[in-house]
Structure formats: C-alpha cells, structure tokens
From TrEMBL:
Gene: Hs6st3
Pfam families: Sulfotransfer_2 (PF03567)
Role played: 6-O-sulfation enzyme which catalyzes the transfer of sulfate from 3'-phosphoadenosine 5'-phosphosulfate (PAPS) to position 6 of the N-sulfoglucosamine residue (GlcNS) of heparan sulfate.
Membrane topology annotation: Single-pass type II membrane protein
Name the UniProt record assigns to this protein: Heparan-sulfate 6-O-sulfotransferase
C-alpha cells in the first residue's frame, strides 16, 4: 500500500502543493483589487531627470494621510527647561506595549546624573532623590515611586492623582509637573 501511494499519489499531491504556493505569490492580495504596475525603467528615463524620479518615487511611497491633530511648529519644537534641583517633577506615563518598561528602567538606572538614582539589588524600585536632598524626588514613575496611582494609570488618572501622591510621600506642593 505504501509503495503504491509513493508512486502514484505523492507526485500529483506535491505538484498541487507547488502550484498553490506559486499562485499565492503571483495572485493579487485581495480579489477584485487592481494592481498597478510601475512603468519600465526606460520609460522613466524619458520622462525626467533622476531628481524628478526620486521625488516621484518618494511621493508614491508615502501614504497620503490627513493630519488628525495638526500641531503648530512652535509647539513641536519648543524647548522645556527641567530644573532637577528646583521643584520640577517628571511624571512618566507608561503606555502598555510601547517599550515603556525598558525606557522607565533606563530612566532610573542608566542616565548619567549629578546624583543618580539609588537602586538596591533585587528590588524593582529605586530612590531618585534631588541633588543635595534625601527625601524629595524628581521622577514619578513605577520604578521610582511604584504604581502610586494604580496599574497603568492613564493621563487623566495621573493628573488628578500625582499631586496627592507626592504630598503623601512628604514632598512639598506647588510643583511643576512635566
């Protein structure tokens, strides 16, 4: 029985499998969708110079998306001074599945500061005190204060919770939160 299968049925099955795989790569992604083919390179050379072709290729490669939240250039390019010795506090908003855990860990362990965060072996939280101080903190994140405002607190929860959480920790009020 096995020899008959190998001799008569296996070659047509393998040929069918091969044709299915080839069809998958040759056919359009969605049925009924027209696939636009690029003109040959010789036709592109006749149309314009290399700079024009590059611009056209870049424009074709970029998806045309409408700006949902158009920000002013001044807003995007503004400079913010952070005074670590003063009263400023960085509040780290952790967004899930965006690399936030790695970035938050780097904030407390790998930044070269005048007074780096003090991390004990085996503990997840580190003490990030201001230079010259032993109680006041400059960073509000899960790796410095823990989940003080709840697990994965969003922007609304953080803006209402952080001032009260800082007061509970014994940090003075009237802070500039960044």
């Amino acid at each position: 029985m096995d020899e008959r299968f190998n001799r008569w049925l296996l070659p047509p099955l393998l040929a069918l499998l091969f044709l299915l795989i080839v069809y998958q790569y040759v056919s359009p992604a969605c049925p009924g969708v027209r696939v636009e083919h690029r003109p040959p390179a010789s036709a592109a050379r006749r149309e314009g110079g290399p700079e024009e072709r590059e611009e056209e290729e870049e424009a074709a490669a970029m998806p045309r998306l409408a700006a949902k939240f158009p920000f002013a250039r001044g807003e995007l390019c503004r400079r913010v001074r952070f005074d670590m010795r003063g009263r400023d506090v960085i509040v780290f908003l952790h967004i899930q599945k965006t690399g936030g855990t790695t970035f938050g860990r780097h904030l407390v362990r790998n930044i070269h500061l005048e007074q780096p965060c003090y991390c004990r072996a085996g503990q997840k939280k580190c003490a990030c005190h201001r230079p010259g101080g032993d109680k006041d903190t400059w960073l509000f994140s899960r790796f410095s204060t823990g989940w003080s405002c709840g697990l994965h607190a969003d922007w609304t929860e953080l803006t209402s919770c952080v001032p009260a959480a800082m007061e509970r920790r014994g940090c003075a009020g009237n802070r500039t939160l960044r």
